């Protein structure tokens, strides 16, 4: 019986086909996992912990928001807002506690006396990474800040 010879180009084609099938399966699994994470975060709430800060602006000013919790309960914790005006060489720091609302991604900001002073709406966030966006309403203004760290950056004071 004569052995049938499969052309080399057919073997390459089969390998490429299997590679494409594997790549498609991996992409589908990633998409499903990401979709599930987004749905879970939208319905159960994203983790608020971390630092959110505006991108650097030409004059060197900075607005930063840090949120801390004990790592167990994410429906309450502490917050700190810092605005640094490089041109005027001044800063203000405001801090207090936050409490969850009925919306799992909206929080009420309370000052140190327990008075409501603003709100935080967490549009999305990854717990372990630097991907996310929060909308802070404070002092009659709303700020849109990207997440820069999963760790809260707390400022004590700037030196002049």
Task: Give the topology.
Elements: H1 8-44, E1 50-53, E2 62-68, E3 76-85, E4 90-100, E5 106-111, E6 116-125, E7 132-138, E8 141-149
Q: Which key terms come to mind for this protein?
A:
8-stranded antiparallel barrel, 160 residues, 8 strands, 1 helix, alpha+beta
Overview of the structural elements:
By secondary structure, this protein is of the alpha+beta class. It contains one helix and eight strands, in the order αββββββββ. The chain has an eight-stranded antiparallel β-barrel. Strand 3 and strand 4 form a beta hairpin. The longest helix is centred in the N-terminal third of the chain and has 37 residues, at 8-44. The model has no long low-confidence stretch (mean pLDDT 81).
Q: Assign a percent range to the helix content.
A: 10-25%
Topology as a string of helices (H) and strands (E) = HEEEEEEEE
Q: What order do the strands of the largest sheet run in, or round the barrel if closed?
A: 1-2-3-4-5-6-7-8
Rg over CA atoms, rounded to whole Å, is: 24 Å
User: Tell me, what's the shape?
Assistant: elongated
Whole-number average pLDDT? 81
Low-confidence stretches: none
DSSP summary: helix tally: 1
Largest sheet features: 8 strands, antiparallel, barrel
Estimated share of beta-strand residues: 35-45%
Oligomer: single chain
Distance between the termini: 91 Å
Number of strands: 8
- Helix-and-strand structural type: alpha+beta
Q: Could you provide a short overview of the structure?
A:
The protein has one helix at 8-44; strands at 50-53, 62-68, 76-85, 90-100, 106-111, 116-125, 132-138, 141-149. It is an alpha+beta fold and 160 residues long. Strand 1 and strand 2 form a beta hairpin.
